[in-house]
Amino acid sequence: MIEIKNLHATVDGKEILKGVDLTIRPGEVHAIMGPNGAGKSTMSYVLAGRDGYEVTEGSVTYYGKDLLAMEPEERAAEGVFLAFQYPVEIPGVGNTTFLKTAINAIRKHRGEKELDAMQFLKLIRAKTKALGMSDEMLKRAVNVGFSGGEKKRNETLQMAVLEPKFAILDETDSGLDIDALKIVAEGVNALRSPDRSMLVITHYQRLLDYIIPDYVHVLAAGRIVKSGGKELALELEKNGYRDFGASEAA
Amino acid sequence: MTAQHPSPLHPMTYSTRGADPATAPAFLTPLDHMGSGLPGSGLSWLNELRAAGRERFAAVGLPTIKNESWRYTNLRDLAKLTFQPAAPAAAAIDLLPTVRAEGQDGPRMVFVDGRFRADLSSVDGLPPRVDLLSLDAALSTHAGLLADHLGRLAAADDRPLVALNSAYLADGAVLHVPANVQVERPIELVFVSVGSESQATTCHPRMLLIAEAGSKAVVVEHHVGRGTGTTLSNHVTEVFVGEGATLHHYKSQREGAGAIHLSHIAATVATGGCYDNFILTTGAKLSRNEVVSRLDGTEARTHVSGGYLVRGTQHADTTTLIVHAKPNGTSREVYKGVIDDTARAVFQGKITVCPDAQKTDGYQLNRALLLSDGAEIDSKPELEIHADDVKCSHGCTAGELDDDALFYLRARGIDRDTAQGLLIGAFLSESLEEIAEESIRDAFQGIVAGWLEEQK
User: Fold this and answer.
1) Looking at the structure, do residues B340 and B415 belong to the same domain, yes or no?
2) Which of A194, B201, B274, B299 suits a disulfide with B246, CB 3.0-4.6 Å?
3) Do B156 and B291 sit in the same domain of this protein?
4) Displacement of CA B197 from its chain's centroid (Å)
5) CA-CA distance, B124 to B133, in Å (whole number)?
6) What percent of chain B has pLDDT over 90?
7) What pLDDT is attached to residue B125?
8) Eight-class DSSP state of B103
9) Is the CB of A90 less than 8 angstroms away from the CB of B423?
10) Of residues B453 and A197, which shows the higher confidence score?
11) Could you state, in order of their start, the residue ranges of all structural domains in chain A?
């Protein structure tokens, strides 16, 4: 279970999150919607542990542990996964090397035996096939020269391989056409399970047609101002975010 | 435009500006005791070469920072020490570095403090008629070949350290590959600095690499240290690449913390020939690698690349000059550096395109990665173009590790040190890819990986 309590965070001295409360139980999918500038991406970075995002007040308890006290790699090893809005291109680092290093780092943390080259290839082949990814994408450098859709599929592949307990999907729909969106959503849906929680962050309701949440929250000006079921997303689609004190975003 | 281009045998003019003759005697006095004891003392051309070197060094002494080419590398501290020529060492040396797979043999020459060690060397696996021997021996058996080549490219007038090397010219390596002979296995030259605990020592190895028309060879140099004393090795290498010949010349310098490594490589490439040079620097407290590659024939090619990885208080200087003297030449230069702590690196890369050298295609890149606030890179790219129909570009950057990439890797469970290692390795791979032979590329990548391990 993930319990976020009264979370305040600043970036460059400016307060972006102003007291977020949210509880996510195993197996639940929560969506956070909100206008631009509401603090959606800040929330994902704070949870993943990015430098420069300073928590000034509040707590995040992750399966009984203080999440905020952990380094980013410890959080990942404990099962936190951030699917990036803009996956980073890393020239010179092969996608396969990257995935193998990551999975073995996490296995080591969990006290599991590291995978050898053959075991890893077998695992990765099965996962790429399920996501409709080519072997060729594995041979390239991490995200380099990938289309928007390929980058998001690569994020989904990493999620499938690393099997997190808590996945944060930051604007996964940005930069995707409808076909790519469907493929990525299918990949994500395949990973839904009773012991895996997800936090889906999005500006548009569109993504939630494909990844159907259990709960929807509206984040505006650094606070959760409304919570409800999946129908809340449809309401927002119709009326926009004006009711929540934000001007309609472009 | 008034064309000012170097004459063929004098690639770069060393002015006497900043000359410091007071530093010369300390380096030259030991010669008085060696004199006629040097090999080949019956050869008049050799005596002249040595005398000219001695005279020149006596007049100018060590280079100083008042000389433009030495602005960023200060040898002042060398003048505070008294160096003695290293005594011949007979000690066994184990674990010699190699690029060969385990159990595979091949030609290898080993030098300890500049002296050839026949007991550690082997010329097995060389095709017939290929000569690979010590300079000392070649002065007896190949005097004509040496007379024709030694001092032809590395002119003592221009460079004080070349002059000093010539003054002491006694031992080193000679490779002669006859026309149309292909040497498949890499020829390894291993230089081990041992020195002395009680005395700073010097040696001045001289190399001559000759690939005749249509021939092909790969030379790999390893420079390692096995002692803790201060050692100064002052290498000079002259490289002749004949028409349509190919010479790949790789070098790894990982001498110890007490080492000063100075090296001058001068190459000439004839029509349709190719000279590739790659230098990986991780060792020595102070190093300077000068590479001069001259395309003296049409349609000649040269790649002059490398990587420098320094930390602590190391200082690594890379100074290159590529001269396009004839039309349709191609040159490519890719240097990558990683600098940590308060280490300092210098990159001076010059490309000269002579008036005749139309249709030249030149490319130069130097990128440095600074891992700490105290790290420093002095980078000076220079293009001097006297022809109008050429394509020449250069790029020069210094930066830090990409925070976004670092966070991305850490967010996938990879710890900071490993993530940094992956990014540094990736950064360097762009230059290592310039190495054509996979086995050598792998070996050099292994050296980089070892350097990264020491980091932790």
Assistant:
1) no
2) B274
3) yes
4) 26
5) 12
6) 84
7) 83
8) T
9) yes
10) A197
11) 2-243
Say how many domains are in chain B: 2
**pLDDT, tens only, A86-143:** 999 999 999 999 999 999 999 999 999 999 999 999 999 988 887 778 888 888 999 9
Please choose, from the candidates B376, B367, B395, the residue with its C-alpha nearest in 3D space to the C-alpha of residue B312: B376
pLDDT recorded at residue B10: 42
- Same structural domain, B69 and B216: yes
Q: Say if residue B302 is in the same domain as residue B447.
A: no
Tell me what the pLDDT averaged over chain B comes to: 92
User: Whole domain around residue B434: which residue ranges?
Assistant: 402-456
Which residues of A make CB contacts under 8 Å with B? 48-51, 71-73, 75-77, 81-82, 84, 87-88, 90-93, 97-98, 101-103, 105-106, 109, 141-142, 158, 162
Per-residue pLDDT at B163 exceeds 60 = yes
* Cβ burial, residue B207 (10 Å; 0-12/13-18/19+): buried
Of chain B, the end-to-end C-alpha distance in Å amounts to: 54
Q: Give pLDDT tens digits for B359-393.
A: 999 999 999 999 999 999 999 999 999 999 999 99
Among residues B400, B424, B446, the one where a domain terminates is B400
B36 located within any domain: yes
Residue B176 included in any domain: yes
Q: How many CB pairs under 8 A join A and B?
A: 78
Residue B208 domain flag? yes
Q: Provide the token pair at A30.
A: 């929560």
Tell me, yes or no, whether B232 and B200 share the same domain: yes
B366 forms beta bridges with B335, B396
Interaxial angle between packed helices A148-162 and A178-190, expressed in degrees from 0 to 180 and rounded to the nearest 10: 0
Contact B146, B208 (CB under 8 A): yes
- Arithmetic mean of pLDDT over chain A: 92
Please indicate, yes or no, whether residues B419 and B312 belong to a single structural domain of this protein: no
Report DSSP state, residue A196: B
Tell me the residues of chain B between 403 and 442 that have a Cβ less than 8 Å away from chain A: 403-405, 407-416, 418-419, 422-423, 425-427, 429-430
List CB contacts of B132: < 8 A, sequence separation 6 or more.
Answer: B107, B109, B123, B126, B173, B174, B175, B176, B187
Best CATH choice for the domain A2-243 from the list 3.40.50.300, 3.30.565.10, 3.30.565.60, 1.20.210.10? 3.40.50.300
Residue B455 CB neighbour total at 10 angstroms: 14
- Write out the two tokens for B258: 């007490």
What are the tokens at B289?
Answer: 């690698």
Q: Which of B331, B315, B215 is nearest to B277 (CA)?
A: B331
